[in-house]
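Record copied across here:
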Amino acid sequence: MAHWPEAASIKQAIEEAKTILIHRHVRPDPDALGSQLGLKRIIERAYPEKNVYVVGGIVRDLEFLGKMEHVEPEMYDEALVLVLDTANQERIDGPHALKGKTVVKIDHHPDEDPYAMHQIVDTSVSSTSEMIAELAEAWGYSLDQESAFLLFAGIVGDTGRFQFRNATSRTF
């Protein structure tokens, strides 16, 4: 399992959930969208019977990565909510994210607001997309061309095309 202690419990939550709602931060960048849409694709391929939705406002400039979906507030009652790339509650895109049955935070920003029941926060990682790629591998989930493209877009965005200091040999 990945080197994060919560990885096993988060995989178990994914396995047990029928409905999974994936959120990210407002005014998203490629990492927020790449990790969100990439994780949706990974989960759907591993568990085609699950209902997986990506939630948040429309992003015209990055719409080529994928589209957001509308969900009803009552869907949160029994859902697993995964909040990606979002350091604090105020920046979560969507008013109902914290009303899920189980809430998980996966992020690479400093953990100043531990708002989730389960979380993986690691500031040594370049991007949340890199974290999702590492978790997918540890969990035994495969990447297809689409999920790899989405996660790569997130990594490229948050590393400045691999020019920033946060790009390490681990990132590659």
